[in-house]
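User: I'm putting together notes for a lab meeting next week and I want to include a structural view of one of the chains we've been expressing. I don't have a solved structure, so I'd like a prediction I can at least talk through. The sequence is below, exactly as it appears in our construct file.
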Amino acid sequence: MDPTPQSHPILNYVLSRLPSLPAVRTPRSAPERDLEQPSPRRPLGAAEIDLVGRMPGLRHPSVLSAMTRAVADVASARDAIDLLGPRPDHEQVDAARELLLLADAGDKADADEEEKAKELDEEKVAASREVVRLDKEHEAYEALLRAAEEKLEHVYRMAMHGRDIKEAGGGDAKWEERSGAVDEEVVRVLKDAEEGKVVERVNLADRQLHLLPEPVGRIRGLLALDVSRNRLKEVPDAIGGLEHLEELRLASNDLVSLPDSIGLLSNLKILDVSGNRLRVLPDTISKCRSLMELDASYNALAYLPTGIGHELVHLQTLRVHLNKLRSLPSSVCEMRSLRLLDAHFNELHGLPAAIGQLSALETLDLSSNFSDMRDLPPSFGDLAGLRELDLSNNQIRALPDCFGRLGKLERLRLDQNPLAVPPPEVVADGVVAVNEYMARRWAEAVAEEEQRRASAAAVAESPRVSTPREWLTRSVSSLSTWAVKVVGQDKVDEEDEFLQQQF
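Assistant: Thanks for the context. Below is the predicted structure for the 503-residue chain, given as structure tokens.
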């Protein structure tokens, strides 16, 4: 497989900047491209734009050159793997291995299996060996891609500090040497804490750490811990002992889960777990009641904890873009302090019905949910404070009439949607035109509703039309009342009985 912006973002970016080698010329082939001229660049995709935003040094020619040299072997391997052809699917590989096991049974096989082995077509055996070999080649290539992605991160950091690619290295000895230095740094931090020194901020980012020792959880006065861009595969449960911790950065590691003890960090205000391999967030994360910023982007989250919004009433920033979310839990609507919600590049099928309760929301990015995002709920118009909205690259056909109530909207992206309401010519005129168009539709909808209610009220208050029987009954009642006054009650009762018999 070729590296993609999702699987190997840095490697994909670097390889896409390499000039393509000209094909072998034939008499009818097009003339070779002048290598002195810059190769044509395709436009940056959304993922690459986001990557360059996080790693602005990628725009520097010297940095990009150093990174390009570091992955020359990947470029060669990619060309070789392209010549080999696509990777066989797992069913083909399993069938080939089963056939080879039968063919290689040899002396260990019983009589029946030996007979079957003799009947095997030599061409089938050779083809099976080729399938297995091709699968191994692709597997080795994928391992090379993973290693190259890590190497590029290392080279980028070294290049940004002014160090040459040779210093960045990438050999096993060099990496182990750096890991040893990191261990010493961790020991120094722990020793300072044990000696009673004030340790409020610990920065262990970019140090190739494979393990975060549990004693870190005993640094009681720690306020900020940064272990971003390491190789951590897990966070110790002891992290819950950092009761005063306000900032925890775990970005760009190999984490597949977070400990439940993270819910004990009641003073935590900033949590960054972006760029890992998380599939779920622990339910206890809602116990971090002081949390103001949560970044869980660039993971593999399929859902968020059901009750995540019940207690995170102070959360102002929620970033969950570039995941696999199909929906947002309704409890998100209880995050009344939320100012920014970024959920682009997911698989969202819609928004919670009560999304309009997020009255403080100013920035909302729902772009690139593609065919899954088709409409917006009626409460969307209650987001009165919304200033920036990105709905691009979805399948929305009509904005709800309540959209006209978003009077503070300043930036709006609706491109790459099959919109009919508002029409394309209105969208092309910009956010002001869209606001005016939808505001008119909203005013018309309100006027129609008021007219409908007025008509219903008028019908309810108008005199009811009488039937002949009802008219005669009222007449008899009036006549009875008059008779009581004239001839007395006893006489009237006799007449009433006679009249009732007539009906």
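A couple of points you could mention at the meeting. The chain has two domains: 9-18+55-161, 198-444. The first strand starts at residue 201 and ends at 203.

User: Perfect, that's what I needed.
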